[in-house]
Design a protein that fits this description.
Radius of gyration of chain B: 21 Å
Number of helices of chain B: 19
Number of helices of chain A: 2
Structural class of chain B: alpha+beta
CATH superfamily of chain A: Beta-grasp domain
Low-confidence stretches of chain B: 1-11
Pfam families (chain B): p450
CATH superfamily of chain B: Cytochrome P450
Order of helices and strands of chain A: EEHEHEE
Strand content of chain A: 15-25%
Distance between the termini of chain B: 60 Å
Protein name (chain B): Cytochrome P450
Largest sheet of chain A: 5 strands, mixed
Mean pLDDT of chain A: 95
Order of helices and strands of chain B: HHEEHEHHHHHEHHHHHHHHEEEEHHHEE
Shape of chain A: globular
Family (chain B): Belongs to the cytochrome P450 family.
InterPro entries (chain B): Cyt_P450, Cyt_P450_B, Cyt_P450_CS, Cyt_P450_sf
Shape of chain B: globular
Keywords (chain B): Heme, Iron, Metal-binding, Monooxygenase, Oxidoreductase
CATH architecture of chain B: Orthogonal Bundle
Radius of gyration of chain A: 12 Å
Number of strands of chain B: 10
Oligomer: heterodimer
CATH class of chain B: Mainly Alpha
Strand order of the largest sheet of chain A: 2-1-5-3-4
Structural class of chain A: alpha+beta
Helix content of chain B: 40-55%
CATH class of chain A: Alpha Beta
Helix content of chain A: 10-25%
Number of domains of chain A: 1
Strand content of chain B: 5-15%
Mean pLDDT of chain B: 93
Largest interface: A-B, 23 and 26 residues
Amino acid sequence: MYRVTFIDADGQATELTAQQGQSVMSVAVANGIDQILAECGGSCACGTCHCYIDDSWTERLPAPDDSEQGMIECLMNPTERSRLTCQLKMSEALDGLVVHLPREQY
Amino acid sequence: MTATPKASEHGTAFEPLSATFAQNPYPAYAALRDKGEPQFFADFDMWLVTRFDDVAGIARDNAMVRSPEFFMSEEEITEQKRLQNWLDMPHHQRFVQFSMLDSDGPVHDRLRKQVFREFTPAFIARQRTMIQSFVDRLVDSLIDKGEIDFVEELASQVPGHIIGRVLGVPDEDCPQLRVWSERVVQFFDIDRSDERKALAEQATTEFYHYLLKLMAERRAAPQEDLITRLMAAQDAGQLNEDELVSTCMLILMAGHGSTIDVLGSGMHAMLRFPDQMARLKADPGLIHTAIQEMFRFESPLPFFHRYATADCVVGGKSFPRGTKFGLLYGAANRDPAAFGDDADVFDAGRNPNRHLAFGGGAHFCLGNHLARLDMEVIFTTLLKRLSSVSLVDAEPQYKRGLSVRGPKALRLAFTPA
């Protein structure tokens, strides 16, 4: 089991546990993190599972692939820390990951 | 595939072309959901899936595809088309039966990549001013009438014009595009008569010639629109001309009908639940959840198919590779297991509201943000500018069939604010 922490736009933190290979999106959806809409269900096709990676983690994640990067550029308020949580799979390397949630996805 | 009696022979009244179903499909959907496992529907030679978890699971599964070419030979596909009266309509087969919607894998990804930017939140947000000014002018022209058909005079006038502007179609051509779109889309339902077939093929042919003319104009004078950008993509080898025509037709057709239908059914839902309309009027900040709820409550495209590319288990029952499933989004979106005991109640503040009206997976509705913005602008404007709204006909008639859901007309009486 790995840990992942979601911090909402008001600064409220929620720490959850995740299985090996589980996407950060599915951890959020299964645990009532309602700011992650994930409308397409994890196919990188809707752009509604946007998060901002905490500064302490940005250097430690694998880079987004072309389809994720293409989607990120078209989101509302993207930054260099933007990622789609459906594309982030939990593993030992990501144990303790901290992500920040936008107030709205669109 | 095992021969199994159709759903009706189990005692489930499932007659999607009937007037009873058109007026209220939800008891029939509930009866199918209560069966638990998928039910065979002989008219479409497919298994109907109605429970939320099963529908979501299939829609989001990359092993479930739209095109049968993964496991059928060309001869088998031709034979299937013949049985379904899909054959001998050259332009329809070339531009409608082949499309981004009915492709999978790398071809689908390549085609979707050409157009997805125009439909993402940041790009759609730029259309807000244009949509607001279009809707303001339209409402200005109707506000003193006191009574209108909301579907024909308001809802039908907006989405086609907006998608037309995104693509690059002049305003004055939009009414004709709507006629073509409806003739093509109607042929998707289970009532595939020869008369409808002739209309669909003729509409596709005229549509094709119209797009050729528009493309020639853009070739001579490029504009800041999607069709010009798609032509540049064609020049760069990203898609061929048939794919370009097919994609333009798909976008125009998808941009017309379903948003008109959900505008009509959404307005009707608020009139059936006047406390929710009052709640939204008192708290306009609920507009996003209210629109989400309109899509859940009366999903405008309630039915899509998928083929299984591998053996699978759905609803506890095993199915072989090649099985065709009918995903009934309208049934899944009323499943109490997903939405609680009030699944049949319209709740403008429902949150979370993880409905399936836009489908799921790789084929998730491309135009969802544009549809929602059209609706947000229209309903926000009407709630501001009208002091009272009521139904003229207590029971508006809904379109018949399994593939669409929306009122044919919605006569409203209203008083300006």
